[in-house]
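Sequence, please.
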């Protein structure tokens, strides 16, 4: 038998519990790293992605020579960094003559590469080029709207895959309840062709409309860019089937004498055993019972008294 080592440090145990599989997973963290060569465009984009995902992102600034996402054997270091930082999303940038300003967005399952999308960055505009009121800057922890415009996101396989990856990258933590005050920005993705998507980041400005519902305006705050899809890799069937598994609910125990009606709802039958009244014990010191017995005894004496005297006189 293999010996399983367990930690005795409570702080380490809490961290391990956070990384353990859960029925309802928490928000996904993003790992940002670069290859051997980078460009000014990619460095600026990494800084702004890290700023927009502050608190849920980890950035590595050191160059990595042995990371090649689409090649066999070039994903080992990437999976190691994913396990080390507990990140299930990653953004990897590299720059070369063949693929300038190249950006790879991917997801991992159980710290193994799940799927990949490679895009080229064109017409990049950082946040500094947009002039807007600083009050409209996105707040940390706010939730964004994500809008996908164009039929390509429903018909083209590459854009459908890119849409899934961008949703995981931009939406943040999934919550059940949401305050409308926290919705202060929007990402607008427009499919301009079968392999090109225009992505921009806008802030929401509320203005008076004369009614209770305010009028909303979009103010572009950046960054904005064109994403040109170059390569993409879908997950294999075995890994996809494993990642889609959910916990099997235990079958409910059958309830006896219970039925359901569309009108009355749940209807049940209650079993009541026969009541044996003769075996019910009576209290020993019941005043009412004693009084009744005493009155019956007195009535019996009064009835028998005169008759006995008359019998004596007749006998004489």
């Amino acid at each position: 038998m293999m010996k399983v080592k367990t930690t005795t440090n409570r702080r380490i145990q809490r961290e391990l519990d956070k990384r353990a599989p859960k029925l309802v997973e928490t928000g996904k963290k993003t790992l940002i790293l670069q290859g051997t060569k980078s460009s000014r465009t990619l460095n600026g984009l990494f800084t702004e992605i890290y700023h927009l995902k502050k608190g849920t992102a980890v950035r590595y600034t050191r160059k990595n020579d042995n990371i090649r996402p689409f090649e066999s054997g070039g994903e080992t270091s990437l999976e190691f960094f994913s396990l080390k930082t507990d990140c299930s999303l990653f953004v990897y940038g590299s720059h070369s003559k063949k693929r300038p300003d190249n950006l790879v967005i991917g997801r991992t399952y159980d710290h193994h590469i799940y799927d990949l999308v490679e895009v080229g960055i064109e017409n990049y505009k950082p946040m500094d080029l947009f002039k807007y009121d600083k009050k409209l800057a996105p707040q940390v922890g706010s939730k964004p709207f994500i809008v996908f415009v164009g039929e390509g996101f429903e018909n083209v396989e590459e854009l459908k895959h890119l849409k899934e990856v961008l949703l995981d990258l931009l939406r943040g933590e999934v919550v059940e309840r949401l305050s409308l005050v926290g919705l202060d920005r929007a990402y607008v993705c427009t499919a301009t062709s079968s392999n090109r998507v225009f992505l921009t980041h806008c802030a929401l400005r509320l203005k008076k409309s004369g009614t209770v519902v305010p009028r909303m305006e979009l103010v572009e705050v950046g960054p904005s860019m064109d994403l040109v899809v170059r390569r993409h890799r879908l997950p294999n069937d075995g890994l996809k089937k494993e990642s889609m598994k959910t916990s099997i609910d235990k079958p409910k125990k059958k309830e006896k004498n219970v039925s359901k009606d569309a009108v009355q709802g749940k209807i049940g039958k209650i079993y009541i055993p026969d009541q044996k009244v003769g075996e019910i014990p009576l209290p020993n010191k019941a005043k009412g019972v004693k009084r009744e017995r005493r009155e019956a005894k007195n009535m019996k004496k009064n009835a028998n008294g005169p008759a006995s005297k008359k019998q004596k006189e007749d006998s004489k």
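The chain is about 30% helix and 30% strand.
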